[in-house]
């Protein structure tokens, strides 16, 4: 649907009034009506770095979800204010790993006698306090672009190291099995709702990857059966998916990678080629619109937007921008200094990774 012209005009006016004091970040999964006002677009990692590269901007309006705004707050200077236009824009995956649960798991691993060999690795899609946990406990943050390098680093930290991978079991499993040659049987799932993670001492002792039982509710919906259907319907189709998809789906895909990889792959694709893409629908639609010379279909029978990403809509953006223009900082996201310092340790280890 086209954006309300009155709201578009108000967003333009507020942006113009704020000028260089304002920097608007737009995640690839945001609505078109919001993306049109983004000064830069990207995945969560690129956006956090883009924000850090604009120390002159007083206000960073983050059109994305809560953990991304936290990361931007951590990576920017203390004088910069990060604003999330709707505080209800969380991430169901990030919410699946709470600090208290992870600390309980860590203690259970000490009781099981394995904690000394475990290196925690958390996906960028986690709350700041989980990143801080990793910083305090010799671990690292990773993104979907550098998960393999981060796992290599983690396994090199200790003899016979095991990795506790948070919070996305699929990214952890797909990277370990498909990129690093770790056997599926060496991956176990830690269920925080069960005592001892629901794992036996033998299972823990034999594991190399301890995968937290979390997943993305959007990418988790893609099914291997739809891949089969689309291959039957469009011979020669290329199936391109995000590594947050289930292992069975990734096994059937031709190419797997981050949102930035997906975008670059489509940009480089030959005219006339046919693609099925398994990632968030706002991005897939935008790619289809931008590449009319290629056939781009969504890898699902149903529409599936990320409902929390979609909470950031034009009315919320206008509300945030108009308040800032009137001198009122609303919905500021701040990470407390102690958490920030520990999270920065884990983020810095990631930034120092080779490649
Ligand atoms: O699934 C997401 O939310 C992704 C891919 C986030 C990001 O940009 O890393
Ligand atoms: Fe979280 Fe998935 Fe939405 Fe990304 S797409 S913000 S991982 S729920």
UniProtKB/TrEMBL annotation:
InterPro entries given in the database record = NadA, NadA_sf, Quinolinate_synth_A_type3
Binding note for cofactor? Binds 1 [4Fe-4S] cluster per subunit.
- Give the GO molecular function terms: transferase activity
| Reaction equations catalysed | iminosuccinate + dihydroxyacetone phosphate = quinolinate + phosphate + 2 H2O + H(+)
Pathway involvement?
Cofactor biosynthesis; NAD(+) biosynthesis; quinolinate from iminoaspartate: step 1/1
Domain of life from the UniProt record:
Bacteria
Please tell me where iminosuccinate binds in this chain.
Answer: 27, 44, 123-125, 144, 242-244, 259
* Places the protein is found: Cytoplasm
Under which EC number(s) is this enzyme classified? 2.5.1.72
Q: Name one Pfam family in it.
A: NadA
Q: Which cofactor does it need?
A: [4Fe-4S] cluster
Q: Where does [4Fe-4S] cluster bind?
A: 91, 216, 306
Task: List the keywords (alphabetical).
Answer: 4Fe-4S, Cytoplasm, Iron, Iron-sulfur, Metal-binding, Pyridine nucleotide biosynthesis, Transferase
Q: What job does this protein perform? A: Catalyzes the condensation of iminoaspartate with dihydroxyacetone phosphate to form quinolinate.
What's this protein's family per the entry?
A: Belongs to the quinolinate synthase family. Type 3 subfamily.
Supply the PANTHER family for this chain: QUINOLINATE SYNTHASE, CHLOROPLASTIC, QUINOLINATE SYNTHETASE A
Against HAMAP family, the record matches this protein to:
NadA_type3
NCBIfam families xrefs: nadA (TIGR00550), PRK09375.2-2 (NF006881), PRK09375.2-4 (NF006883)
This chain belongs to which protein, by name?
Answer: Quinolinate synthase
């Amino acid at each position: 649907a086209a954006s309300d012209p009155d709201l578009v005009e108000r967003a333009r006016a507020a942006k113009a009034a704020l000028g260089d004091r304002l920097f608007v970040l737009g995640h690839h999964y945001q609505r078109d009506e919001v993306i049109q006002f983004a000064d830069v677009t990207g995945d969560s990692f690129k956006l956090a770095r883009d924000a850090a590269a604009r120390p002159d901007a007083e206000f960073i309006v983050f059109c994305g979800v809560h953990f991304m705004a936290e990361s931007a707050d951590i990576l920017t200077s203390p004088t910069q204010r990060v604003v999330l236009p709707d505080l209800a824009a969380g991430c169901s995956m990030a919410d699946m790993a709470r600090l208290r649960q992870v600390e309980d798991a860590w203690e259970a691993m000490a009781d099981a006698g394995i904690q000394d060999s475990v290196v925690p690795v958390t996906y960028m899609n986690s709350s700041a306090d989980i990143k801080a946990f990793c910083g305090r406990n010799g671990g690292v943050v990773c993104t979907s672009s550098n998960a393999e390098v981060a796992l290599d680093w983690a396994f090199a930290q200790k003899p016979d190291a095991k990795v506790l991978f948070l919070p996305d079991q699929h990214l952890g499993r797909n990277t370990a099995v498909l990129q690093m040659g770790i056997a599926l049987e060496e991956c176990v799932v830690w269920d925080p709702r069960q005592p001892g993670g629901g794992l036996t001492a033998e299972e823990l002792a034999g594991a190399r990857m301890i995968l937290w039982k979390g997943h993305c509710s959007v990418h988790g919906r893609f099914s291997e059966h739809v891949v089969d259907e689309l291959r039957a319907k469009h011979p020669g189709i290329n199936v391109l998916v995000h590594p947050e998809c289930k292992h069975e789906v990734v096994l059937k895909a031709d190419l797997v990678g981050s949102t930035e990889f997906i975008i670059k792959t489509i940009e480089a694709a030959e005219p006339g080629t046919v693609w099925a893409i398994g990632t968030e629908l706002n991005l897939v639609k935008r790619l289809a619109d931008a590449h009319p010379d290629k056939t781009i279909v969504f890898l699902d029978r149903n529409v599936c937007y990320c409902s929390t990403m979609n909470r950031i809509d034009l009315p919320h953006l206008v509300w945030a921008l108009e308040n800032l223009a009137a001198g009122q900082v609303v919905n500021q996201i701040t990470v407390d200094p102690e958490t920030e310092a520990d999270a920065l340790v884990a983020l810095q280890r990631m930034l120092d990774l080779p490649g």
